[in-house]
Amino acid sequence: MKPIKICFISLRSYPLFIKRSTEYFGGAEVQMSLIVKELAKNRQFKVSLITRDYGQKKVVLRNKVKIKKTKINPFDFFKVLKTINADVYVERIANIKVFLVGLFCKMFKKKFVYMVAHDDDVSNKWLYYFGLKYADLIVAQTKKQSLKLKQNFKIKSIVMLSMIGLSSSKRAEKRKYVLWVGRADDWKRPLVFIDLAKKNPKQKFVMICRIGNNQKLLKLVKDFAQKQINLKFYPVVPINKIFKFFHQAKVFINTSLAEGFPNTFLQAGMAKTPILSLSVNPDNFINQFNCGYSAKNSQETLEADLNKLINRPKLAKNLGKNNYDFVVSHHSLTNLKIFKRALKQLL
């Protein structure tokens, strides 16, 4: 039986195939690169990946994955899609490429898979009319996303929970600070974290804030952070170094207005660190599995819950252990079998 030729489109994923890269990427790229690398280990699949141009060769082979670069224009993009000649094409982030890949697949009788990256995707009418209607398979991250697709667009989807590679838990480290990890995007609301640091001057805070889509916001965050003596700011940390910060955190804080399923929640879980989330709580898992606290978009509640976790280290430790148990039982790489099964049913 011939292997299934599958092509993933993830323009910013190339840094995740290079050691110690400090280039921009997000959670969608982390998940996509993980799926790509795992599928490539299986002889039933022949895997390729399209990324943007980072100055690499036209074709690069990494971890049995053929990586091709494309210019950011429809003509070159279509040309690369056609050259690869896959059976299945997979896109994840909501943008014009969803329409282009969907149109390409319809024209050349290929299968198109769309993977939901953010809760906004499932209420995005533009995305539906110009892309999702071409999809042969849609993969949601959560039950909520799957339900919204059905309610808003009458579209069926399968649910595959986000994944993380499970490793043996490190020996316990001293918990030193309150941690925030993310990008300088408006919807991630990084300034809320800095405000928390101001209100808790005796507590240490660490902020890892990479460049996002708002340069002015990044400058503002840097300026405010540098004035806050109890807050240490890092503009970037390579992904292979990030776990040290989670292992040393008393609590991990998420201030985003909305997300899909944040990779940082999985990283916190693997480090046995409790979560304190201002708004994001996919499928209510934080409450259901007792992994931390959800403030339901109330900054007053966020502040009160933070003080509770700081002042009650045994409580924080128990919630962190619950978070670890949840991630191990629900977010391992075995989830990929759901995707493999669905791909085989497509062809």
Enumerate the spans where pLDDT stays under 50 for 5 or more consecutive residues.
Answer: none
What is the global morphology?
Answer: globular
Strand content: 15-25%
Just name the CATH architecture of the largest domain. Answer: 3-Layer(aba) Sandwich
How many domains?
A: 2
Write the layout of secondary structure elements.
Blueprint lengths: L3 E6 L17 H14 L4 E8 L6 E4 L2 E6 L3 H11 L3 E4 L4 H12 L3 E5 L9 H6 L6 E4 L2 H11 L4 E2 L17 E7 L6 H10 L5 E6 L4 H13 L3 E4 L8 H5 L1 E6 L8 H8 L4 E3 L7 H4 L3 E3 L4 H13 L1 H18 L5 H11 L1
Parallel strand pairs: 1-2, 1-5, 2-4, 5-6, 6-7, 7-8, 9-10, 9-12, 10-11, 12-13, 13-14
Antiparallel strand pairs: 3-4
Give an overview of the whole structure:
The structure is a single chain. 39% of the residues lie in helices and 20% in strands. With 347 residues, it is α/β, with parallel strands linked by helices. It folds into two domains: 4-163 and 332-346, 3-Layer(aba) Sandwich (Rossmann fold); 177-330, 3-Layer(aba) Sandwich (Rossmann fold). An eight-stranded mixed β-sheet has the order 3-4-2-1-5-6-7-8, with helices on both faces. Strands 11-10-9-12-13-14 form a six-stranded parallel β-sheet, with helices on both faces. α5 links the parallel β7 and β8 (158-159). α9 crosses α12. The chain is globular and about 60 Å long. It starts with a strand and ends with a helix. The model has no long low-confidence stretch (mean pLDDT 93).
